[in-house]
Design brief:
It comes from Anaeromicropila herbilytica. This is Stage 0 sporulation protein A homolog. By secondary structure, the chain is an alpha/beta fold. The chain contains five helices and six strands. The chain has a single domain, classed as 3-Layer(aba) Sandwich (Rossmann fold).
């Protein structure tokens, strides 16, 4: 079932967040909590896309924006896993921040083998720890781009 879509038009100065997650419940969990983080911390960030559709995600890559953050499920699809999607994103967007979400922390070596230059590798759980890690990453990006 296709669910997701472009959330809204975004000004070029705002950091765009793109969530690529196949699990509907976890995608909603991320979207809700990331919106809360952005609002509470008053970050110059906006959700550009929350989707499980590869075509929507790759279409976002073609759009010009100053700053993007990609949050990607490593088990995104059997035919296009999150590591391959991250590698494709990196080939087009050299400066975008990539955060990988995983059910299997043992796959960490794939990040280094494929030289993906990711910001973080987070265990995929609907927990406070997961959200705190994402918040820490978003604060880091926000402060980095504020300068």
């Amino acid at each position: 079932m296709k669910e997701g879509g472009i959330i809204g038009e975004v000004m070029a100065t705002v950091t765009q967040l793109i969530i690529c997650e196949q699990d509907t419940a976890f995608r909603r969990f991320l979207e809700h909590n990331i919106r809360d983080i952005i609002d509470k911390q008053r970050m110059d960030m906006q959700l550009k896309l929350v989707s499980d559709d590869i075509e929507e995600i790759t279409a976002c890559l073609q759009e010009k924006a100053n700053k993007k953050v990609y949050i990607i499920d490593t088990a995104f699809r059997p035919e296009v896993n999150g590591f391959l999607l991250a590698k494709y994103i990196r080939s087009i967007d050299r400066s975008g921040a990539i955060i990988l979400m995983t059910d299997d922390i043992l796959k960490t070596s794939n990040v280094f083998i494929q030289k993906l230059e990711i910001l973080d590798y987070i265990r995929k759980t609907e927990s406070e720890e997961c959200i705190l890690q994402i918040q820490s990453d978003l604060e880091y990006i926000h402060n980095k781009y504020k300068k």
